[in-house]
Design a protein that fits this description.
By secondary structure, this protein is of the alpha+beta class. It contains two helices and two strands; from the N terminus they run E-H-E-H. A two-stranded parallel ribbon has the order 1-2.
């Protein structure tokens, strides 16, 4: 059985956390991202993925 690793990124609503999440997703990694301000984190999430 192959296990897929998941990146857990805190602070994904701002700066460095957003950059890390974006790069991890671009590299094909699975990501769980959290942020202190849910609205900001949700808005940033749209910039991580291609529609």
């Amino acid at each position: 059985m192959t296990e897929k690793k998941v990146w857990f990124i805190t602070g994904a609503g701002r700066c460095l956390g957003t950059d890390i999440a974006r790069e991890a997703l671009a590299a094909g990694r699975r990501v769980v991202a959290t942020g202190r301000r849910p609205v900001e984190t949700d808005q940033r999430r749209g910039t991580w993925l291609d529609p």
